[in-house]
Amino acid sequence: METSFNIPNLGKPEIKSPLNLSTVKGDKIFNFVEDEESLVYDLSLKEYERCLNTGSDPLCLEVAGPRESIFFNPEETSAAIVTCGGLCPGINNVIRGTVMALYYFYKVRKIYGIPFGFEGLNPEKGHEFRVLNPDEVKEIHQFGGTVLGSSRGAQSVEVMVDTLVEKKIDILFAIGGDGTLKGANAIATEINKRGLKIAVVGIPKTIDNDIDLIDKSFGFETAFDIASPILRDAHNEATGANKGVAIVKLMGRDSGFIAASAALAMPVVNFVLVPEMNFELYGEGGFLEVLDQRLKNKGHAVIVVAEGAGQHLFEQKEKVKDASGNIQHQDIGILLKDVINKEFKGELGGVKYIDPSYIIRSAPANSSDSIYCSRLAYHAVHGAMAGKTMFVAGERNGRFVYLPIDAVTQKRKKINLEGEFWFSVLQSTGQPFQMP
Amino acid sequence: METSFNIPNLGKPEIKSPLNLSTVKGDKIFNFVEDEESLVYDLSLKEYERCLNTGSDPLCLEVAGPRESIFFNPEETSAAIVTCGGLCPGINNVIRGTVMALYYFYKVRKIYGIPFGFEGLNPEKGHEFRVLNPDEVKEIHQFGGTVLGSSRGAQSVEVMVDTLVEKKIDILFAIGGDGTLKGANAIATEINKRGLKIAVVGIPKTIDNDIDLIDKSFGFETAFDIASPILRDAHNEATGANKGVAIVKLMGRDSGFIAASAALAMPVVNFVLVPEMNFELYGEGGFLEVLDQRLKNKGHAVIVVAEGAGQHLFEQKEKVKDASGNIQHQDIGILLKDVINKEFKGELGGVKYIDPSYIIRSAPANSSDSIYCSRLAYHAVHGAMAGKTMFVAGERNGRFVYLPIDAVTQKRKKINLEGEFWFSVLQSTGQPFQMP
Amino acid sequence: METSFNIPNLGKPEIKSPLNLSTVKGDKIFNFVEDEESLVYDLSLKEYERCLNTGSDPLCLEVAGPRESIFFNPEETSAAIVTCGGLCPGINNVIRGTVMALYYFYKVRKIYGIPFGFEGLNPEKGHEFRVLNPDEVKEIHQFGGTVLGSSRGAQSVEVMVDTLVEKKIDILFAIGGDGTLKGANAIATEINKRGLKIAVVGIPKTIDNDIDLIDKSFGFETAFDIASPILRDAHNEATGANKGVAIVKLMGRDSGFIAASAALAMPVVNFVLVPEMNFELYGEGGFLEVLDQRLKNKGHAVIVVAEGAGQHLFEQKEKVKDASGNIQHQDIGILLKDVINKEFKGELGGVKYIDPSYIIRSAPANSSDSIYCSRLAYHAVHGAMAGKTMFVAGERNGRFVYLPIDAVTQKRKKINLEGEFWFSVLQSTGQPFQMP
Amino acid sequence: METSFNIPNLGKPEIKSPLNLSTVKGDKIFNFVEDEESLVYDLSLKEYERCLNTGSDPLCLEVAGPRESIFFNPEETSAAIVTCGGLCPGINNVIRGTVMALYYFYKVRKIYGIPFGFEGLNPEKGHEFRVLNPDEVKEIHQFGGTVLGSSRGAQSVEVMVDTLVEKKIDILFAIGGDGTLKGANAIATEINKRGLKIAVVGIPKTIDNDIDLIDKSFGFETAFDIASPILRDAHNEATGANKGVAIVKLMGRDSGFIAASAALAMPVVNFVLVPEMNFELYGEGGFLEVLDQRLKNKGHAVIVVAEGAGQHLFEQKEKVKDASGNIQHQDIGILLKDVINKEFKGELGGVKYIDPSYIIRSAPANSSDSIYCSRLAYHAVHGAMAGKTMFVAGERNGRFVYLPIDAVTQKRKKINLEGEFWFSVLQSTGQPFQMP
């Protein structure tokens, strides 16, 4: 039976792994993972019955972990790590884990950090590769940011592959979001075209938690953990005034996981607005009406809005102009602040607007993320040493698996408005299940 | 097709739920959960194929959530909450969530807090039930401990059921560990024997995370989150002296999840000792030998030990007496401190022993646990209102499910020494895979 | 010898204090404070010599604390607390301390909270006084904000005094900043004019720490304590990009104490810009030139700017328009961001702008402030019960003293650019001692 | 006029300071400090008048800060830093500040770290000096502990001076407590005896805050800041049980500043026991009686005890044996726990004993301490470069001053039981002013 989320391999792994693991169950020592140890993707009994009735194979996921035979000879292997895009808690933890796993588990001694994202693979930019080893990285998990530096935007795929070849890199670990993963895939495709044996591994990084098929991305738990006391204090701002309103804008360009989770974690929030939902400001059942009701009943309101929410409000230029008189705004937080200030003119004790985005994304990883980052990094290294390529490591249904990069970049993960998670958010805030 | 983890029901739910949910997919409103929406318990392809091949039904789990028809008429329903056993972060969050769900979702108006655990159900103890409502509980999620008070130990089951009857309680929510859940089951059995219609719901509370079948218990993430900076600083104690050793004892009577997770979260730990593993102090490959090696190579060591680890060392009384000269010790942390002090007499820069247990268990829940507690409480309420009894709410494979109390109290969950989690701990600490 | 900072008194205190204190030194029990226990205001030897040579009396401060004879009969006394202006960490601690001191030390039983600032003294606003007692306030020290609510702006002094009279208030505690203290003085003046015996006590509240003559105001230590990790993470933003710049705007309308203290507490800051200093953006030695130098040498820069800094840059409208093309900006943080973006166009890895003001001011008090708030409140109560009026309690040269309200509202405290504190900031940042 | 706390000098400072400071008031640039800028030591009007009346000179303190003429030629100067005794938050901050000040202000290039305390000055121990520079220390302020390592106990003064001579050290910065400062003075005395020109500077380090004459020592504010939430949670332990008692032992061998401050910062504490006070356990008005009263009235109690409190109870061996049956105990926390358990046998919901000492002392400095450490270090360097020796830098009456080492080591600072600070603690806890 073949797995459905197939991971490409650079070739047959024929080198004995230097890891001193077991192949026997019951000896209390971890066993090498076999490629056949798949997990079903869909847990519903309905899907099982479909398979049973139709005789079809269930969609399966490849279990992550160390393989008994590996592709790369550790002594000769050279690995490089690149971090791209915006900051996210945990990047340094992933760098640290990757270096530690390469160095201590597989005895790889040539490990490099590529400075400032994909820019660092473009010789024109003049950045030097940085030598990495345990001494260099042993304390970086305590710091936010990325010790390698980052950058946004694309570089020529050919130029980047040229650099990898020139630097004799065998494995490229690319830590980044959707764009970075697509870039990594393009690099791997070019590598493949040239018939090279360079593994390209993606480690999905998105503070928004919107990488598809994966339970959570690293940094996400830290994000709502840091947002949580900010909401607690926003509540102080709202209640500290007569008819006070506090608006907190949180990250979430296409999906509202941070906003929703933070609101659930700190249950003083009265409204969560996310990109997945429709809502109108005006009219019957519109946001302003329910807010008015809330202020009349309770005397204050705390609103959490994801940065990508309500973008349709900016397209209706006439309306928005009416409301805020300021059509150039593309910031939903500021739009809300302006609209509320205008609509409730003189009635409110103030509208406090808080945008903590940079504070959140540059913070060090919390404990959960720290654990997740180490394990992600270890699994990425195990997969890479086995010669797997064009894959990401991630958690699905609570287990670490490998997934093809192109499987997770097809579309972004979104909150299921009919799912249990969003329902728990609605239960917590008490906001209407739907606004028109 | 019947689920295998069957939840008993007090009777047919025939009352229309007051929740304004949908029964139509695609309208972006949460749908009532149907009892048939089961999930397979075992994700491995191997098990799936076994079922497909043999035509046997896979073991399934009942999905948690609100049912369209409920058993209890909210207007007449009376619910009580009891918290038992030691403190654990998140108890107040669960109390709050339960009260909020009863009050706002189902409009239940008679909600009571039972003071000081099962003692509060024994009239001889003289504790009065406490009236609970949203105003009483709205801010308690910010505090550790339990606002209801707790106690340990058993009370007469008959007396407790008498009290429930006298107080006209329809639903009992029991928040507690293994013993409490068994007690709750005994209460439910007595209720059943008397032919009463009182639902008994367990909400598993164990900071050790050792309730079987459940991904995690509430408070556990907070536990290692709080332990994490303590380990960071224990490292300062170890490195602040020439050949310094720091020992941190963490909770974990039968399983070492907190010790292992904290060590993974703060990767400055060199040895984790858990109840699941065997290890000897003396002899070749024994702990003292590997510690000696570590001190010679690196000049310091940080040891994390779960309270239940190494209990076999106390049975070998002769040996222990030799080692520590203090046979009455049953505390593995103090034993280790004494043995190390004795064995390395004069060579060490000090052995610092840290026992932060009370500091950890009395802290407020962190964000992850806060979310988990709210959702757990909501699901417990939904199940109870539907007339389910003798069940717990919990997360399994990342989904909220209901499980029979007696299924989760058969045995305690332990770290799988051959599993990926323990392997990642070993990778992080660098300690030997096995000690003799 | 008479004190120079005289505190008015409502009349001769003739009632024996209910406090069970001592009047004997050496019995290890606190002694009542005598009005004569003054402290010299100026510690310099130079001032001593001036007094010696000229025979003049040194300027003195009245020591705060309980008096043996008090003015108000506790049994009949009624006290009210009002909180005005913006939030500041510690307000609830001061409310709590005041209630506790009135209730437990003096057995005052009529204690009221005035809702929403001076608005609450205007019957037209329709706010009801709130009854305060230990049960109501015992846990509020753990929360930011003000449980009484606040408001800005003036109310009619006559109306407010009418309300105090109607509500039979004997002591008014006004927690607020410069404007509030002036308002309190106006109320006291009107009270005096009417020949009433109502004590008016100010408790200076300014997160900016700019109340004159007082070592520090409550909330200030919390402010830079919370700002400190934000600066740490801003540093991650700056170093996470090639030639990255992070700008953090901190509170400080007229004085830069928070910005300077936070920069000193988290020594990753390269430039601190405060209202007290002059600086130009352009030209030789101007800020942009030194920033350019820094970026060339070090590759990144962290800038902390107090909100009131550089306001002269807005008056030179032509210049500013040239620079940012956006003359309506009055926000120095945004001005800096725009100017830097424009001047270094394309050369920078990004300019990250962070404004955490609401996050800081709405937070709970840290430990130092918590201690300070309790002691402040106790002293305010002791002074009020003794019949003192038109005074504030505060710390000066490390001792708690009473000062006349009009002495501390003459002008705002500012950073002494020739003083040791500012010098230590310059030493820490390495920025030029002066910019043109 | 001569200062009374005279600081010895190695010789006339004749080298022009490289600091680009001003000597003109009013130019908004910090001025060099002149040795004559003294401050009176005693602020009381009484003392001031005594001096004025008798014409005697007031006792004065030398103002800390950079001098226009310095003694050491920076280019040739070599400085070494040693850290001794137990950990304390802020040691790394002081190391960092010292290195930064030497390197950047004075351009001293030969800076060494002495490993493992005074041991590092004993060649027999085999520790190598460590080269320090800004790159080595720039991030250490974020970590607790000491990057140099520490040790306890004395080394031969002659040997240590031999090492300083051999290593050509010109300035020794000794960061440590009472014993270390006395050791530093002994080293300086030996240096003087040999006619050497080596400056010895003490930076007082005592988490107990018991260095005489100095407002506070670094690490102390962090200590009660970290203790504060531990007390909050101890309160949860006490209230989480029926008649629950929580005992927290905090540092304070000879003085109770940490215990008292933490209790004041987190006002949930009912009893503070410090070394300065007398109290008996038994008999009328004894601690057990007042505790019993408290438990009857309120149902729980939180006790904070300084480690040095109640030591007299151990001398009365008979009595203690009666009480606890365990005379070998010298730990007041455990004594209290045992006595309370015995006296209230069966009546209590548990006595929880918490000893967080290592957790507190190994933590990183909080913001206030971070500021204090930098300024202390800067002042130590300024004094040393000016050729001052046998002095400490510290804050007194809110100003940084230099004091002779032997002035601050005469006796330990203690809480004044008749002073305002202790009175505020008593007011906060509500405990009796005196126990027999």
Automatic annotation (TrEMBL), chains A, B, C, D:
Chain residues that bind substrate: 206-208, 251-253, 307, 358-361
EC supergroup of this enzyme: transferase
Compartments in which it is found: Cytoplasm
Domain of life per record: Bacteria
GO biological process: fructose 6-phosphate metabolic process
Domain Phosphofructokinase span(s) in chain numbering: 79-382
Keywords from the UniProt entry: ATP-binding, Cytoplasm, Glycolysis, Kinase, Magnesium, Metal-binding, Nucleotide-binding, Transferase
Keyword ATP-binding: yes
Location of the active site: 208 (proton acceptor)
Keyword set includes Transferase: yes
Site, as annotated: Important for substrate specificity: 179
EC number(s) given by UniProt: 2.7.1.11
Family: Belongs to the phosphofructokinase type A (PFKA) family. PPi-dependent PFK group II subfamily. Atypical ATP-dependent clade 'X' sub-subfamily.
Subunit structure: Homodimer.
HAMAP family per the UniProt record, alphabetical: Phosphofructokinase_II_X (MF_01981)
Annotated function: Catalyzes the phosphorylation of D-fructose 6-phosphate to fructose 1,6-bisphosphate by ATP, the first committing step of glycolysis. Catalyzes the phosphorylation of D-fructose 6-phosphate, the first committing step of glycolysis. Uses inorganic phosphate (PPi) as phosphoryl donor instead of ATP like common ATP-dependent phosphofructokinases (ATP-PFKs), which renders the reaction reversible, and can thus function both in glycolysis and gluconeogenesis. Consistently, PPi-PFK can replace the enzymes of both the forward (ATP-PFK) and reverse (fructose-bisphosphatase (FBPase)) reactions.
Name under which the protein is recorded: ATP-dependent 6-phosphofructokinase
